[in-house]
Structure of Retropepsin-like aspartic endopeptidase domain-containing protein:
Amino acid sequence: MAAKKRDLKVIGRLEPINFPEWDLYGIDAKIDTGAYTSSLHCHHIKPVQKDEGEYVRFNLLDPSHETYNDKLFELPIHRKKVVKSSNGSREERFIVKTKVQLFDRLLTAELSLTDRSEMRYPVLVGRKLINGRFLVDVSQKYLSEKEIKEQT
């Protein structure tokens, strides 16, 4: 059952997002209702075969990002998806699952791994994650930070 509009948290066009399982906090995310799947900026994205199945190995962010720590991740591939990027090109991407925190909500997210170094924000939050949970006010940004300040 879909949540009623009054029950949905309002978020802005930009919000900080946390990845608690990866010890990564306060990463700027662009909220994009035009994108279905959320995506995450990574580099050195390589598939690896293990006894347990298909995995993907990658580094989060890149050396130019202030929170980059050169940590290598290896996660099960949830699925693969052909994605049409904003410039019209198509690429096959690996989709992984992890927990994300947006405002006070801990959610399971599917993230496509891609090089977003040419983009302003390292994380793009798509409709699949926000649908039924949040309303987007594109005239606002960083509403979660404003909410925290109001509570203190």
Remarks:
- The chain has one domain: 9-147.
- The longest helix spans residues 143-151.
- The chain has two helices and eleven strands.
- The mean pLDDT is 89.
